[in-house]
Amino acid sequence: MSSFRSAIAIALLSGVAFASTHAAGNEDLSDCVDLSSQHETARFGSQYLLVKDGESHYRLGFGGSCGEIAISTRVQLRAEGKDGRICPSGTTVRTKRGSCTVRGVASISAEQYESYARRGR
Predict the structure, then answer these.
(1) Neighbour tally for 44: CB within 10 Å
(2) What is the pTM of this model?
(3) Which candidate among 53, 73, 90, 112 keeps its CA 20 to 30 Å from the CA of 106?
(4) pLDDT tens-digit profile of 52-74?
(5) Long-range CB contacts for residues 69-77, cutoff 8 Å, separation at least 24
(6) What is the C-alpha separation between 86 and 92, in angstroms, rounded?
(7) In the chain, domain spans
(8) Which residue from 97, 49, 116 is spatially nearest to 77, judged by alpha carbons?
(9) Residues 22-54: pLDDT tens digits?
(10) How many angstroms separate the CA atoms of 101 and 93, rounded?
């Protein structure tokens, strides 16, 4: 039974280390951002949408699941009545099947973006 407890402890510590590694460098968005027409998006499951716009990278969280992005190949970002804009609050992600409200937007590093995007495939 002690090896079972050790395995659980290792798994929990690994999870904490992973979370703190990926939380480092995350900064909640404080102002709205107008994205260029060249921005790219990638899914990370149905909980996050990743956005890359030039040298800037963002992680949009839904505070749960957004099933619409899981099966859609194209998404439209909209905030304050303007397409291609993301804001700390009031941003929606629209697909052909419906829309989801974004609950949080964080600025992330290029490395974090690539890591999330790679795991989301």
Answers:
(1) 20
(2) 0.76
(3) 73
(4) 999 999 999 999 899 988 888 89
(5) 69/43, 69/93, 69/95, 69/100, 70/43, 70/45, 70/46, 71/97, 72/96, 72/97, 75/41, 75/49, 77/35, 77/41, 77/51
(6) 8
(7) 26-120
(8) 49
(9) 444 578 888 999 999 999 999 988 899 999 999
(10) 6
